[in-house]
Specification:
Strand order of the largest sheet: 15-19-14-18-16-17
Number of strands: 23
Organism: Microbispora hainanensis
Oligomer: single chain
Protein name: ABC transporter substrate-binding protein
Low-confidence stretches: 1-51
Pfam families: SBP_bac_5
Structural class: alpha+beta
Strand content: 15-25%
Mean pLDDT: 89
Keywords: Signal
Largest sheet: 6 strands, mixed
C-alpha cells in the first residue's frame, strides 16, 4: 500500500512518514494522555501482531456503529493539512491520505472495524458479512444489506457493485490497485486491459454475476482465499452507473456514506455535509456526529503543529489526517502534559527504506557494505527520534504483517550508527575497496542534513558518494525508470492487507520490473520469484506467513534495501474535538468517530 508523501517532502507514489495501512496502535482522542506522555519515561511504541486482525461475523457487520462515549451531534469540524486529495474516484485511490477522507463518502463490500482495545475485525460494509467461498477462494459470493442508498435516495444494488468493478478497466483509471482486475480476466499473466476494456462500450464482464439485486458473485481465475480483504480497499469502492462522470468523477464522487461533497476548490478547500440518505443501521464503522466538515490545504507540518499548539478560534475544532508534529517541535510537545492529552501515537504498517539499485550495484558485498555502514541512528535523530520517525527497521516486512519474524542480518540494532570497519571488510571481499555510489535525495532542509550524515558514514567505510538532489514534486518520476542513473534512493511500502503477498511481491518479484512500478531495486532473483509463487499458493495463513518471512530473509540476504524505519505517527488535534483516533489501517488520524464537544 502506498502513501502520498514523506512527511518532509512531497511524494506521489510510495509511502511516507506519518502515513498508512495495517497495524495495531496506541489509542488517542479520549482525553487521557497516551503511553509515554510527559511526566513519564518515554516508552517505545508497541504494536499488536496482525494475528489480532480477525474475520468478523454477520452480527459484527450490522449497524449502527457503537456509540462513542460522550459524543454529541452538531457543529463543524475543521481539517488542516498539507495537500489536497490527489484522487477521490475510488478506482484511483491507492494512497492513505485519499483513502482516509474517502471513508466519509465511499463504502466498499467489506471494511475494518476497531474496538477500544485495539482489536481489528474485517466486517461487511455494504455486504451483510465478509463474503463466502466454497472452493478456497476462486468463487466469492456477497449479499448486500437492506436499506443501502446513494445520496439521491436511489438504492445501491448488485448491478452498481458489478459496474464499479467493470469501470476499473477503463484507460483513465491507472492509479489504483489492480488485484481484482488481474484476477477477473481469463489469463492473469496477460495485461488485463487487453482482455476487457471496461463498460463504456456496452460490454459487461462475465466473471461477475448478479443473479438478483442483492447478490454479487465473483469468479476469479485462481484461488484467492483473502479476496474479502482485497475488496476492503477504497480502490474497490462503490460507484453508481447513473452518476459516473468518468474523469470528472475524481473531483465529485457520489456518496454512499454519511457525508457528501458540496464544494471542492482544488488545492484550497473541501466541504462536506451530512448525506440524509445514509442509514446508520446499515453501517458498522461510521458515525455522522458533525453537521459539516471544512477542510483546508496548503499547510506544512510546522504550521499545523503551531496552530494546534496555540489552540485558538476554529483550530480548537480542527484535526489533520496526515500532518505529524513537526520534528523540531517534538520534544516541546512531549514535555507539555496538556498538549499530550490531545496527541495521537501509533505504529503504522509502513516500512521505509533506501532502495539499492541492484541493476547498477551488482556485487552483493558492496550492497551489504552499504547497509553495514549506514547511519540509521543519526538519521532517526535528525528526523525527530523514534516517536516522530519510527523504530529502526531490519526487515522488509513490518511487524504488522502476519508471519513477521524479527531478525537483524547486519547487526544494525547493536550498531545503529554504522560499522565502518565491518563495511570495509565487505568491500575488500568485493575487490572494490573504494566504489563510487550515486545517492539521490529530496532537496529539502531535513534531507540535506540527512544527506550529510549518509555521506560521512559511507565515506568512512571507503565509498565515494555523489549526492544528487531531486525536486520533491517529481521525485518518483526521476527514480521510476528502470534505467535511472542512481544507486541509492528512498522509498517505503505497507501491505495492502496484512499478508506478506502484498508486502513483498509488488516490490521484489523480478518478473514485475518495469518503469514506474514498485520494484525500485530491480531485484530479479529466480529463487525469490519461485518462492513467491509457492507462498502465494499456500492457503493456511500461518504457514503462508512462515513462507513470506523466509522470503524476507532471502531479500535481505541479497541486500536489496537498507531498511530505515517501522514508521510511527505522532500528531495533535484541537481541544474542542472528541473521538479523534489513530487509524491503524491508514496510519493517520481518522474522522469516523469525531465530534464537536
Amino acid at each position: 500500500m502506498r502513501s502520498h508523501s514523506r512527511r518532509i517532502a512531497s511524494m506521489t507514489a510510495v509511502l511516507a512518514v506519518g502515513a498508512l495501512a495495517l497495524a495495531g496502535c496506541a489509542k488517542g482522542g479520549g482525553g487521557a494522555a497516551p503511553q509515554g506522555a510527559a511526566g513519564t519515561s518515554q516508552k517505545p511504541l508497541e504494536n499488536k501482531a496482525v494475528s489480532a486482525i480477525s474475520v468478523g461475523t454477520a452480527a459484527d457487520s450490522t449497524g449502527p456503529a457503537p456509540e462513542v462515549p460522550g459524543a454529541k451531534s452538531g457543529g463543524t469540524v475543521y481539517m488542516i493539512d498539507r495537500d489536497d486529495f490527489s484522487h477521490l474516484d475510488p478506482g484511483r485511490v491507492y494512497v492513505n491520505y485519499n483513502s482516509s477522507v474517502s471513508h466519509l463518502f465511499t463504502r466498499q463490500l467489506t471494511a475494518y472495524k476497531h474496538d477500544d482495545s485495539g482489536n481489528i475485525k474485517l466486517v461487511g460494509d455494504l455486504a451483510t458479512d465478509t463474503g463466502t467461498t466454497t472452493d478456497n477462494g476462486k468463487t466469492w459470493k456477497f449479499t448486500l444489506k437492506d436499506g443501502l442508498k446513494w445520496e439521491d435516495g436511489s438504492p445501491i444494488t448488485s448491478a452498481d457493485i458489478k459496474y464499479s468493478f467493470e469501470r476499473l478497466f477503463a484507460d483513465f483509471i491507472t492509479e489504483g490497485p489492480d488485484y481484482a482486475e488481474t484476477w477477473l480476466v481469463p489469463d492473469p499473466k496477460k495485461p488485463f486491459r487487453d482482455q476487457y476494456k471496461g463498460p463504456y462500450d456496452g460490454k459487461e464482464l462475465d466473471t461477475i454475476e448478479t443473479p438478483d439485486d442483492k447478490t454479487v458473485v465473483f469468479h476469479l481465475n485462481g484461488e484467492h482465499p483473502d479476496f474479502n480483504f482485497t475488496v476492503a480497499m477504497t480502490g474497490y469502492g462503490a460507484v453508481p452507473k447513473a452518476h459516473d462522470t468518468k474523469q470528472k468523477y475524481d473531483k465529485q464522487p457520489f456518496s454512499s456514506g454519511p457525508y457528501k461533497i458540496v464544494s471542492h476548490i482544488t488545492d484550497k478547500s473541501l466541504d462536506l455535509e451530512r448525506n440524509p440518505n445514509w442509514d446508520p443501521k446499515t453501517d458498522p464503522i461510521r458515525h455522522a456526529y458533525p453537521d459539516k466538515f471544512h477542510m483546508e490545504f496548503g499547510l506544512q507540518a510546522q504550521q499545523t503543529t503551531e496552530r494546534f499548539m496555540a489552540d485558538t478560534g476554529t483550530d480548537k475544532q480542527a484535526f489533520t489526517f496526515h500532518n505529524p508534529v513537526a520534528p523540531e517541535r517534538v520534544q516541546e510537545v512531549l514535555g507539555n502534559p496538556e498538549l499530550m492529552k490531545r496527541s495521537l501515537q501509533g505504529l503504522t504498517p509502513f516500512t521505509t527504506f533506501y532502495n539499492i539499485n541492484t541493476k547498477r550495484i551488482t556485487d552483493v558485498n558492496v550492497r551489504k557494505a552499504i547497509i553495514t555502514a549506514w547511519p540509521s541512528k543519526q538519521i532517526q535523530q535528525l528526523e525527530g527520534g523514534e516517536i516522530a520517525a519510527g523504530k529502526i527497521a531490519t526487515t522488509v516486512m513490518s511487524p504488522t504483517v502476519l508471519g513477521y519474524e524479527q531478525f537483524d542480518l547486519y547487526n544494525k540494532l547493536a550498531k545503529p550508527e554504522g560499522d565502518p570497519e565491518a563495511a570495509k571488510a565487505l568491500l575488500a571481499k568485493s575487490g572494490t575497496p573504494n566504489p563510487t555510489v550515486v545517492y539521490a535525495y529530496n532537496q529539502t532542509p531535513v534531507q540535506e542534513k540527512v544527506t550529510v550524515a549518509i555521506k560521512e558514514a559511507l565515506t568512512k567505510a571507503g565509498f565515494n558518494v555523489v549526492a544528487k538532489p531531486l525536486n520533491p514534486t517529481t521525485y518518483y518520476d526521476a527514480i521510476g525508470p528502470v534505467d535511472n542513473k542512481y544507486d541509492i534512493y528512498w522509498g517505503g511500502w505497507a501491505a495492502d492487507w496484512p499478508t506478506g503477498s502484498t508486502a513483498i511481491q509488488p516490490q521484489y518479484d523480478g518478473r514485475l520490473i518495469s518503469d514506474n512500478q514498485p520494484n525500485y531495486t530491480h531485484l530479479n532473483v529466480p529463487e525469490i520469484n519461485d518462492a513467491i509463487d509457492k507462498a502465494n499458493a499456500i492457503s493456511d495463513p500461518v504457514e503462508a506467513g512462515k513462507a513470506w518471512a523466509a522470503i524476507d530473509r532471502q531479500i535481505m540476504d541479497q541486500a536489496a534495501i537498507v531498511p530505515e524505519f517501522y514508521q510511527t505517527y505522532f500528531g495533535l488535534y484541537g481541544s474542542g474535538l472528541g473521538g479523534v483516533k489513530f487509524d491503524p489501517i491508514e496510519g493517520e488520524q481518522s474522522a469516523l468517530d469525531i465530534y464537536v464537544k
